[in-house]
Amino acid sequence: MTDLAFSELQRDCLQELINVAMGQASDKLARYLDTFVHLQVPAIALVDAAELPQHFASRYQQQCATLVSLGFFGDSGLRGETIMLYQLDNVGVIAQLLGYSDDSASEAEMLTDISSVLTTTFLNGLAEQLENSFSYAAPRIISSRDDNFGQKLAYSAEQWQLALQVDIRYQLTDFSFDCDMILLIPGEAVLRLRQILDSILADF
Amino acid sequence: MALTALICDDSLLARNQLKKSLPAEFDADIVTASNGMEALAILRSQEVGLVFLDLTMPELDGVGVLEAIKADAMDCLVIVVSADIQPEMQKRVMELGALAFVRKPASAEKLSEVMHKYGLI
């Protein structure tokens, strides 16, 4: 895992690119929900993908959670997956505000819609700064109400050996609604990403 | 006498990007801070004419810095350079006394335009 580690300069560079992309995504979300999104500095960590199911399970142990996953594919081997995690406690409030009806099919539809607003804006912003362009797979939705939540999570994690975990918390001020975004990038794409970061750093 | 300008951002890349994007004719001594607390310490210990201020930062964020500048009636101009481009945030920083809002990554053209507008170059 150490050979995939980021130098402090690379980490700083990636954090700033993510910060800019996150700002664009938050602006979109704020307009979509007609509210204000409180931005925080994202936490970046290189993790073993095998630990992710455990990580998610313990993080959302006490609550109902839904996870929406979106795969992305860019030029020159850059690819990965974003996972949006929603606590379902306050999903009903948002559903009412946005005019979705109160059933689980509509809830899934709404979370998929919000996820695509957030993740595609975020990823397009990131791709632009990396001078790359991404295409997207169809979103997958997994709810902790599903019996085989853990199994589905494990399947998702299996596809990546190593992952760059970027925890981004979108917190809305007008009403309580937290969602987390996790960006997973496989090992070979981490290497590619490091090369791109180095070329950006060489310009400054 | 050259003006002292402070660049406050938690990212080294962002500080370097900004420094490199400043107009060549801008004659200033540049000092830097990597969070709001450091910025306030500098502002309280030396005369700074212009601040380029990021918003999303650890320790003390840009809004906190603007509030302190306002509360202490410090005599410096602030250009906010941020990725938090929500209209409400832009409105908030302008109300707190910022001179202008520039979205990240700040281009040399935009910085030059803003600095011309306010007679800084």
Automatic annotation (TrEMBL), chain A:
Alphabetical list of InterPro entries matching this protein: CheC-like_sf
Keywords: Chemotaxis
SUPFAM superfamilies: CheC-like
UniProt cross-references to Gene3D superfamilies, sorted A to Z: CheC-like
Protein name as it appears in the record: Chemotaxis protein
Organism expressing this protein natively: Rheinheimera maricola
Automatic annotation (TrEMBL), chain B:
Cross-referenced Pfam families: Response_reg (PF00072)
Keywords associated with the record: Phosphoprotein
Domain Response regulatory: start-end pairs: 4-119
Organism: Rheinheimera maricola
Keyword Phosphoprotein in annotation: yes
Modified residues (4-aspartylphosphate): D54
Name of protein: Response regulator
Highest taxon above the source species: Bacteria
SMART domains: REC
